[in-house]
Design a protein that fits this description.
5-stranded antiparallel beta sheet; globular; mainly beta; about 350 residues; about 10% helix
Length: about 350
């Protein structure tokens, strides 16, 4: 996705003067489901937010917990699969949605594959004007400071020095967004190129996470038939047929992504479609459905999908376990980071929105 001229000029000036899925199967060379939240005594919070008094997002908060906080799981069979009862270090207890948690053992595996860096510290990086890389560094982005080093997780992990931290004003909303620019060479462009985005990690040991190639995919009949079945289960209320648009991507040789779009226009909210996505994996018995991004409204107009993976990584085995996903809206896009949490994928970071 490429931004228009006003934002391009602004970015150029800043750079030169100084951006509930679920799992249905597991396999031995991937992350085993037993490391999901339900199977451990400790869990890590994926996104900053409250612990609630009741199993309801509208219920009062017990306390606020930051991403990366370690919590103790309190056995309670009444939580079902959607909510987990937890306790803080000082024994304040409450409820938290299950997709906001990941098992501590699985979390440790990700940190090991990322060179000792917690996954919540990952950020998006992409080429910008002047032949540099920019790393999104909003406030709270620990490790991305002037003169620090960062790992750019491209085809192989390579280190780059952050030479400047600067900010850019969004011409539409007026808010400012922090970027770190590096001394690493990149293809010179006069705008951020989100589709060339990769993950960046603060300095640590060299990450072993492996980037998987992403390409357009013409699905074989068995895979297309499986996607049709999944689409039938995901169709939004009132849908009477298959999705109007399906966009396929391969994530390495043995995984596939399908973005599904149903036309659903609502001028009052700006909604143009209801979208979902499904991740598939090729096993010994053929293709299988691995995870789903649940249906959600989007202002992106068909045939544009709501989501498109631009970088995928394996942290063990062949299956993708970290995704950098371009999320589209009518006037722009952003890059979000998704992590495999043992029971599907969950978003752990929402990037800067390039648009109004």
């Amino acid at each position: 996705m490429r931004i228009g001229a006003p934002l391009a000029v602004l970015l150029l000036g800043a750079v030169l003067a100084c951006g509930q899925p679920r799992s249905e199967s597991t396999r031995e060379d991937s992350i085993p489901a037993r490391d999901s939240v339900e199977g451990g005594e400790r869990a890590v919070v994926l996104t900053t937010g409250p612990i609630h008094v009741e199993r309801d997002e509208a219920s009062p908060p017990v306390t606020e917990v930051a991403a990366g906080t370690l919590l103790r799981i309190v056995p309670d069979s009444a939580g079902g699969t959607d909510w987990v009862r937890v306790a803080t270090w000082d024994d304040r207890r409450g409820w938290i949605p299950a997709p906001r948690l990941i098992g501590m053992q699985l979390w440790s595996r990700f940190a090991e594959a990322l060179g000792g860096v917690a996954p919540v510290l990952l950020r998006a990086a992409y080429p910008v004007e002047g032949g540099r890389w920019a790393i999104e560094a909003p406030l709270g982005s620990s490790g991305f400071t002037v003169a620090s080093t960062a790992w750019i997780l491209a085809d192989s992990a390579w280190s780059a020095r952050v030479v400047r931290i600067d900010s850019i004003e969004n011409l539409c909303g007026g808010e400012r967004h922090r970027f770190g620019t590096t001394d690493a060479p990149a293809g010179g462009e006069n705008f951020p190129v989100l589709e060339a985005g990769v993950l960046a990690a603060p300095s640590g040991t060299r990450p072993s996470a492996r980037r998987l190639p992403i390409e357009a995919l013409d699905p074989e009949p068995a895979l297309a038939a499986l996607a049709d079945r999944i689409a039938g289960e995901l169709g939004p209320p009132g849908a009477t047929g298959p999705p109007e648009a399906v966009e396929w991507r391969s994530l390495g040789p043995d995984a596939a992504w399908a973005a599904l779009s149903w036309r659903s226009e609502d001028p009052a909210t700006g909604r143009a479609q209801v979208a979902a996505a499904a991740l598939f994996r090729r096993g010994d018995a053929g293709w299988e459905h691995v995870a789903t991004m649940a249906p959600a409204p989007s202002s992106a107009e068909i045939p544009a999908p709501a989501w498109r993976p631009v970088a995928a990584y394996s942290t063990g085995g062949a299956a993708p376990t970290l995704l950098l996903v371009e999320a589209f809206e009518y006037e722009g896009a952003r890059l979000d980071i998704w992590i495999e949490r043992g029971g599907g994928f969950a978003r752990i970071h929402e990037g800067y929105y390039w648009g109004c």
